[in-house]
Amino acid sequence: MADKLIPSKDDWSVLQRFKDMGDGSWAATMAVIMTPASSGGLLIAKTVAAASTNATLVKAGAGQVFGVELANNAAYAVFFKLFNKATAPTPGTDTPVWTIQVPPGGRVEINRPAGIAFPLGIGYTITKLVADLDTTVLVAGDVVGSVNYF
Q1: Do residues 98 and 11 make contact, with C-beta atoms less than 8 angstroms apart?
Q2: Are residues 8 and 79 in the same domain?
Q3: pLDDT tens across 5-42, in order?
Q4: 136: domain range?
Q5: Residue 38 belongs to some domain of the structure
Q6: Cβ neighbours of residue 31 under 8 Å, at least 6 residues apart?
């Protein structure tokens, strides 16, 4: 039984392993090695809640959300709402496509390695109540966090 490691395109960032199974067949596996880089990769939209509904346009055009990290400093739950829009969302009018509850004094970290598509654009609001059309404002500094997107 022979084992062969073969780099892909003269680059060792992708390794292919071929194994002779001894019965005339071969098994193949592939591993991808992540290497650090100073460019490319995801973008970060940081937020520190203002005393408002925090209507924010993250990206005006098609994009993907890969992760959300939020911390709630308040003694009540807050709701981070993502919108598929090319303009800043209008609280009380626009309907979010994803609502994330952040518990009182809690933290939420969501990672989606394949990304979630937002074909029109990426926007968000942060409100005190869960209803899609809620316009209840926060106290400044209630929420701190980021959206990881491309």
Answers
A1: no
A2: no
A3: 555 555 445 555 666 667 777 676 666 666 767 788 89
A4: 43-149
A5: no
A6: 14, 15, 17
